[in-house]
Amino acid sequence: MSTKVEILMHPVRIKICQALMRNRENGLTPLEMVKILKDVPQATLYRHLQIMFDSGIVCVIKEKKVKSVSEKYYAINEEEAKIDGSEWRELSSKEKLDYISYYQLSLMTQYQSYLKRLGEQNSQEDGATFSVVELQIDDEHFTQFQNELNELMTKYYHNQSKGNEKEAPVRTIAITIIPET
After folding, report:
1. Cα(125)–Cα(119) distance, integer angstroms
2. 66 beta partners
3. DSSP 84-96
4. Using CA atoms, how far apart are residues 30 and 53, in angstroms rounded to an integer?
5. Over the stretch 114-157, which tens digit does the pLDDT of each residue have?
6. Ranges for the HTH arsR-type domain (predicted)?
7. What is the mean pLDDT of the chain?
8. Cβ neighbourhood burial of 13 (10 Å; 0-12, 13-18, 19+)
9. Counting CB atoms within 10 angstroms of each CB, which of 18, 77, 90, 102 has the fewest?
């Protein structure tokens, strides 16, 4: 079968992961996912969801009986959905470029959807930003920087919307780190 990297970095599965991360508390049924991922046909979603389930990347968190059918609610298994350094290092340069391309394409698609929504709302409030920063720091400080950045992202990921009565909008934060240039 495929490696975890191959499973996670498929464009459709990236979308499934994002939808499940946004609904990690209650999970989603496949039919709810189809409504969210409008550009993914139902049969395609089921096929990719099964691959993710078989690999342990998603799990069933509850089942509800609806009429005579049992509806399964899926959630992302966050530990299994992480790619560790050893898995990444085993890939060829071509595979890494392909996967980074899928990742960037996914971001570009999200940004296009965002701009389309702004246009539909006749809004000039584009809150998107991007920047490039080159840091000249030694390996120890670079590792410390990466760890602190990861801790900050994890903190806000796990504390999102706690205590808010109103549902907060989803904000995508995407970071690519290139260790040396």
Report:
1. 10
2. 69
3. PHHHHHTS-HHHH
4. 12
5. 888 888 888 888 888 888 899 999 999 999 999 999 999 989 88
6. 3-90
7. 88
8. buried
9. 90
Q: d(Cα 111, Cα 128) in Å, to the nearest integer?
A: 9
130-135 long-range Cβ contacts below 8 angstroms, 24+ apart: 134/181
Q: According to the model, what pLDDT value does residue 87 have?
A: 86
Q: Which helix (H) or strand (E) holds 50?
A: helix 42-54
- Asked whether the beta carbons of 174 and 130 are under 8 A apart, the reply is no
CB burial readout 119-128, b (16+ within 10 A) else e = eeeeeeeeee
pLDDT at 35: 94
**Stretch 82-91: mean pLDDT:** 86
List, for residues 95-107, the tens digit of each pLDDT value: 889 888 888 888 8
> Distance (Å, rounded) from C-alpha 31 to C-alpha 50?
14
